[in-house]
Amino acid sequence: MPETAEVVVIGAGVVGCSVAYYLAREGVSVTLLEREAIGSGASAHATGSLSLLGAEFSLGASFQLARASYAEFPQIVPELESATGMDLLYQRRPSLRLALDDEEADLIKSLMVWQQPHVSMRWIDAREIHAIEPRLSSSIIGGVYEEESAQLDSYRLNLALARGAELQGASILNRQVTGLVANGSTTSGVRTASGDLHSGAVVVAAGTWSRAFTPWLDFPVPVRPMKGERLLLNYPGEPLPALISSPKRGHMISRLDGLTSVGSTGGRDYDRKELFLGEDFDRQPTETARLELLRRAIDVFPDLERAELVQQLAGSRPLSPDSKPIIGPVPGQDGVFLATGHTTKGIHLGPITGRIIADYICRGSTRVVSDMSEFLPDRFADFADADFLTDVPSVEE
């Protein structure tokens, strides 16, 4: 007898596990497939920052999606911690987005024009910043103070979502997908090295590897790997009172486990062409990134010179051509949905992506955002792979 499930989800990163969790919570029979290990892709090395500031979101549906997902965490974190017994190291604290030169100040203020009506935030000068944290650099000229942002451990979140899905009845199998089971335009399952698995719907949440599904779907899935690196430091001083970031210099976050996270490269170091060198997921840390990340962090927080390196993490994020996630049904393919291409915001947008896909499968549509057209796969219907380099915007994390 062939194996069956109502829904097969491919990929066990935060996005795939969120989809499995939200579907299983609705009572749907779910099988989650992963070829390596849970959280073995981008989710394992992500910062876990849940800030609404920065340039990753844009005015309109993008920011509406970001706010909706941010609002999920105060509910889903205690829900997962209670069910699984895991501590996700979730913290809700103020944030400071700092400018050390006029270019950074201009960028921050330009974003504030449309962010400020939706987020409790204000521009403060260097004197006010040093009143909050005197150890910050004397070169800071100002910054935006956000009354609340959040951060958690992305890998623990990933494991908790997987375990939570299992506790709701989902199955997790270690299988490599080799194709789709299809009859014309109707997909009814997936092919794996261990045999076919039949289902009523298939969700491709394979992150960086989602592009491999293009020939099987006869539809472009334009996702490329974008490498990023970050550091975990043992800093002997008192934790920072806010989550710190700078457009040019990245983040400095005191985690609840006592370590300080610094990063990340995430595209900022490379020009538009170099961003796409290589076709594979790259887990190899580099000395160049380590030295650059330390230099940047010390520019903002000079006392980090006293810190010791504990771990350097590297991996590739699933970059879409417009840096927006690809979420929803595949045109011309009944029963197939995409949940990929989240670029640098997969942790932040994972839970809301799970809710949206569950809405599509269980109810045929979603009301999470008023207009899903910015995220639907059909925006890439005529996309040619050669267009990728010219279409993708610059990335700032």
Mean pLDDT: 91
Quick one: biggest sheet?
8 strands, mixed
Unreliable runs:
268-273
* Distance from first to last alpha carbon: 48 Å
Percent in strands: 25-35%
- What is the gyration radius calculated from CA atoms? 21 Å
Number of strands: 16
| SS element count, helices | 9
- Which shape, going by the Cα principal axes? globular
Query: Helical proportion?
Result: 25-40%
Structural class: alpha/beta
Oligomeric state as shown: single chain
How would you describe this structure to a colleague?
- The chain has 397 residues and is of the alpha/beta class.
- It is 28% helix and 28% strand.
- It is built from 9 helices and 16 strands.
- It has helices spanning 14-25, 61-84, 102-115, 126-132, 154-167, 214-217, 287-300, 346-363, 388-391, and strands at 3-10, 30-34, 91-99, 121-125, 142-151, 171-174, 177-183, 186-192, 195-204, 224-234, 243-246, 250-254, 260-263, 308-319, 326-329, 336-340.
- The strands form 2 sheets. Strands 1, 2, 6, 7, 8, 9, 15 and 16 form an 8-stranded mixed sheet that branches.
- Helix 2 packs across helix 5 (154-167).
- The longest helix is centred in the first third of the chain and has 24 residues, at 61-84.
- The chain is globular and about 65 Å long.
- The N and C termini lie far apart (48 Å).
- Mean pLDDT is 91; it is low at 268-273.
Summary, kept brief:
With 397 residues, this protein is α/β, with parallel strands linked by helices. Helices cover 28% and strands 28% of the residues. Helix 1 runs parallel beside helix 8 (346-363) and helix 2 (61-84) crosses helix 8 (346-363).
